[in-house]
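Section 5: illustrative case.
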């Protein structure tokens, strides 16, 4: 058995393995916000790994996600519940994510040490996420591929996997800092979901081709049919212009939500520099990712389009310099936003 410091070090190691981006962001925080969000991310990742595995049957994943949801808030026998949860889960390919799931007990052992209000906040949102994922898995199947029908279903899916996280971040920030008063908290809550949706839809745009190979098409069917495409049978390369238009529509939707995410970031009190940076870094990384994705040349290049390490360093440096100025953040955002708009 690990000691207290050792257990949390293991959690930090898992975070570095399963998400370099979030591992970068989380380091800017401190205190209860840091520890709560680190553990919350890993707990969310466990649910996501179960939901995302292409080899587990949908009905089985639904059952396991419901069992996982029942772990929140943790009861005194949570270790026994975890043993039952994992007893018949077999991953065909070993990965850092599958190792995290197998070691869920270590994460929970640290989670139950958090202050009671933090446990309640995280439990409510992870439970909502897991049950939402289970509900979505129980819905439509079409030729082995699951399709979302329209923007409303896309928003619903993104709410469960990312909007819940946006709400949880606001609630954790509000609990951790007395500088977020009631009025500010309400302002942040109104845009929390949009922040999560902006980041998630950016990821969907980035994985426009890849997700379908795993049995999901997160781009709504209506986006395709409006361009005269049958997403169940159409070939991406048969009508490049139509598929490019679908992709552009997805990017514009992500931008709509990222505009809200910018306002969310500047609504955080300027004295809370660490909270602002925690939000600004993924926001500007998402914005520049969309800039690189926009257009037919990027979509059909055959390459994975993403920002470089140098881009990340530049974003971290520039936002760190601008973080206390609302006008500076707006100006930085507007420059890239105008560049994307100019490609339309």
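Designed sequence:
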């Amino acid at each position: 058995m690990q000691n207290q410091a050792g257990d949390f070090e293991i959690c930090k190691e898992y975070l570095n393995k399963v998400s370099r981006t979030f591992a970068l962001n989380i380091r800017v925080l401190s205190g209860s916000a840091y520890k709560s969000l680190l553990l919350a991310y890993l707990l969310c990742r466990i649910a996501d790994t179960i939901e995302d595995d292409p080899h587990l049957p949908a009905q089985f994943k639904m059952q396991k996600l419901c069992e996982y949801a029942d772990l929140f808030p943790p009861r005194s026998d949570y270790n026994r519940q975890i043993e039952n949860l994992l007893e018949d889960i077999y991953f065909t390919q070993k990965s850092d994510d599958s190792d995290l799931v197998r070691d869920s007990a270590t994460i929970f052992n640290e989670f139950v040490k958090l202050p009671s209000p933090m446990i309640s906040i995280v439990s409510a949102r992870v439970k909502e996420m897991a049950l939402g994922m289970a509900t979505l898995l129980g819905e439509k199947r079409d030729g082995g591929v699951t399709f979302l029908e329209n923007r409303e279903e896309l928003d619903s899916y993104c709410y469960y996997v990312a909007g819940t996280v946006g709400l949880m971040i606001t609630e954790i920030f509000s609990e951790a800092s007395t500088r977020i008063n009631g009025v500010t908290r309400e302002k942040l809550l109104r845009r929390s979901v949009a922040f999560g949706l902006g980041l998630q839809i950016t990821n969907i745009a980035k994985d426009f081709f890849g997700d379908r190979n795993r049995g999901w098409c997160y781009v709504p069917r209506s986006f395709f049919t409006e361009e005269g495409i049958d997403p169940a049978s159409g070939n991406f390369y048969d009508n490049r212009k139509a598929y490019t238009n679908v992709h552009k529509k997805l990017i514009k939707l992500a931008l709509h939500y990222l505009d809200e995410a910018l306002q969310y970031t500047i609504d955080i009190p300027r004295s809370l520099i660490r909270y602002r940076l925690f939000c600004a870094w993924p926001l500007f990384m998402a914005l520049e990712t969309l800039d690189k994705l926009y257009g037919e040349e990027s979509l059909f290049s055959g390459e994975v389009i993403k920002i470089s390490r140098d881009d990340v360093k530049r974003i971290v440096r520039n936002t760190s310099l601008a973080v206390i100025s609302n006008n500076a953040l707006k100006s930085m955002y507007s420059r890239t936003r105008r560049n994307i708009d100019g490609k339309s």
